[in-house]
Amino acid sequence: MTTFRVGVIGAGSIAQSHLSAYAENADVELIAVADMNLERARAVADQYGAPRAYADPHELLADPEIDGVSICTWNNSHANWAIAAVKAGKHVLVEKPIARTLAEAEEIQRTVEASDRVVQVGFVRRHSPNCQVLKSFIDAGELGEVYYAKASCLRRVGNPGGWFADKEISGGGPLLDIGIHVLDLCWYLMGSPKVVSVSGNTYDKLGSRGNVTTMPRYKAADYDPSKNTVEDLANAVIRFENGASLLLDCSYSLHATKDSIEVSVYGEQGGAELEPALHIATEMHDSVVNIEPQIASRTFEFGVGFAHEIQNFVDTSLGRAESIAPAWHGVEIVRILEAIYESASTGREVELG
Ligand SMILES: NC(=O)c1ccc[n+]([C@@H]2O[C@H](COP(=O)([O-])OP(=O)(O)OC[C@H]3O[C@@H](n4cnc5c(N)ncnc54)[C@H](O)[C@@H]3O)[C@@H](O)[C@H]2O)c1
Question: Which residues line ligand 1 (CB under 6 A)?
Fold first, then answer.
């Protein structure tokens, strides 16, 4: 049996999900953790039994005993570390978004194309069994041609603050943080069609809602309610070359009566909701029929999603599978996100290639 030796760059919140999945994977040996906060890198390395900890990720990348890395740093360094890792001969699983900007994302893509290394983007929700079951139905033609999709992720009081709320570091607000997940699920299920135009809007009417102290919220470690340079809400209509269209909206701050998530795709022979839970609808013998695949969970479960994502990364790196989230998919999603911001700032539809 081949062992895949792993390093993790960035030892904050999401690194824990990567590390737990690596620690439970029989094919993997954890070698090192790096974080500019060395104390954090050491604590996390100890927690998961990795023998080495570094403050400088360059040192981790120079470690010849490492075959692949997860990049779990802030968005502003994804491109830098992904490119450096490939050049150091490592396979890469980089968290979403693959990069802050299209220019950075395309630089990663050029590096990937010039190498034989795997670069996978962290679209963890794709790996969830409910998504894979629906994908198998769609690939088998059960929904017919998918021509419409809806992607929505609305938080009422959900601006995490810290680096998430600093556009310079994050590249954007709810669009790059949570809208990206639901947009990506729809795009993936639609068969990764080529985008031709994007019309978007962003709003910053409510700010971080740091004044609301009566509702619990996830807060970044360096939360400061007075610091916020990202949008509250973004929406978009996205058109594809095959005539299909997608409606997207997402928010950190909104006067909605509840938080919500929705991912739905509609085709000529059937439709499906993936989020909040998998349900499929079709028509048989002039009757409307709901199809209920019998699976362990109809909803996305974080731990299961990460276990499958890590397995796909390991299998692809070891040459025994294909990645279901290759780098170019991450690039195409950033192309759409950047066009949404451009359309919002110009007040015009953006046409793409
Ligand atoms: N897939 C998901 O569902 C999901 C969920 C949350 C976050 N994320 C992504 O994961 C990434 C990290 O998010 P987080 O919530 O873990 O943030 P975090 O702030 O909790 O952790 C980031 C860690 O990276 C370190 N770091 C940042 N820049 C660095 C650099 N240049 N060199 C070395 N260390 C550096 C920080 O010190 C920190 O310990 C983001 O890109 C985010 O979009 C993905």
Answer: 10-15, 35-37, 40, 57, 72-75, 77, 95-96, 122, 124, 163, 177, 220
Q: How far is the CA of 82 from the centre of ligand 1 (A)?
A: 14
CATH of the domain at 275: 3.30.360.10
> Which atom number of ligand 1 is nearest to the Cα of residue 40?
39
97 cis-preceded (ω within 30 degrees of 0): yes
Tally of domains in the chain:
2
Q: Residue with structure tokens 């030796």?
A: 5
- Pairing of the two strands 279-284 and 287-291: antiparallel
* Domain boundaries, position 96: 4-124+306-326
**Atom 5 of ligand 1: nearest residue by CA position:** 14
99 with 147, same domain: the answer is no
Give yes or no for a contact between 291 and 281, defined as CB atoms under 8 angstroms apart: yes
Q: Whose CA is nearest to atom 15 of ligand 1?
A: 13
Residue pLDDT, tens place only, 1-53: 689 999 999 999 999 999 999 999 999 999 999 999 999 999 999 999 999 99
pLDDT, averaged across the chain = 97
Out of 91-105, 109-123, 184-198, 206-220, pick the least confident.
Answer: 206-220
Same domain, 34 and 159: no
CA distances from 52 to 3, 31, 304 (A): 18, 6, 27
